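Researcher: Please predict.
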Amino acid sequence: MGKDRMPDKSFLKTLTLLYVEDDEDIRNQFHQFLLRISGTLVTAVDGEDGLNAFKAHRPDIVITDVLMPRMDGLTMAEEILKLAPSIPIIVVTAFDQSEYLMRAINIGIEKYVTKPVNSELLLECLLDCAHRLLAEEELKLKHLRQIQEAKSEYNETFAILSGGMAEDYSSLMQRLLGYATLAKIHLEPDSNSYDYIENIVKCQNEANLLGNNLNALGSFYTDDFECRQLMPSIITSVRHLLDNSTITLELDLPEDLPCIRFVEQQIKQVFESMAANAKEAMPSGGSLLLSVRLVEVKKDGDVPLIPGMYAVISVSDSGDGIDASVMQNIFKPYFSTKDRSLKRGTGLNLAMCRTVIMRHGGIITAESIIGRGTTFNVWLPAEING
């Protein structure tokens, strides 16, 4: 074996081998040899033990004897190939076991060595297997890179197009508002035409919110994540949305706010959407509480998130609450309890909010009590210093 096999040797050192042999002396003889050339070695004493070991450890290569008690090696190999059709399996056989060799070929086993086993020949077989696995791994990585490059190019194009459309849309709406304002100057306030112009202005305000959504949709396909404190931006956006209402904004924030990796336009639209929903839930006024707490998510916990520290940002209103039959559908696309014609311009729907939060590595949940209001909880990964 020359230097041209060095990549295969290096890759073999990262792999897990399963060695199944019922003869204890032979198993012990090859244990150190296989352990030295591989990354991890798992051993089993027969086919049944080997099948269980495969399910538990998912090795990269299997080496097995043929004749063993309880379950022979080829029966085990057949069961393994059902679970992992492309896994390399090396069969150890004897010259006088030709029927077993034919059976091995028929079930798709390509590699075999004869007894007594020559360690150099076994190593060559293992390197051939490693070579194939390495080539498959490189092909997968190349394919993933191509997918990522195509996705990035598509996202960039989409962001540019949607951002440009949003800018043109906003410019057009601003011109319409200007003309409507000029028209109002030349009309009597009690005229029907004046009322018509007022309705145009209201529609224009709703159209502006739709334009903001279009701009947010463009930003959704960017990777412009920043790591900084999130709440100042959210508080400013929510306060602006609650202007000219009788809703009081209350804050419950820790002294040291954590840093969050986020795309500002996307996250702002999420919380503006939740604030807009809360505003609609409190037409006669009320209170909206923004609070933050740090929670550690542990492995095998109740929250479906990667273990780590999370900032839980809660938006709680004092409205009438949401019925349970409605709560189970609020994150579904296009779901609304309002007439289709009345839900224009209310910000991102909750389905999009959930998608944005999931893209940031978090989740969004909701809870509500009739007569006591609704709370949305946004979980986002937090970066804690020290």
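Model: The chain has eleven helices and twelve strands.
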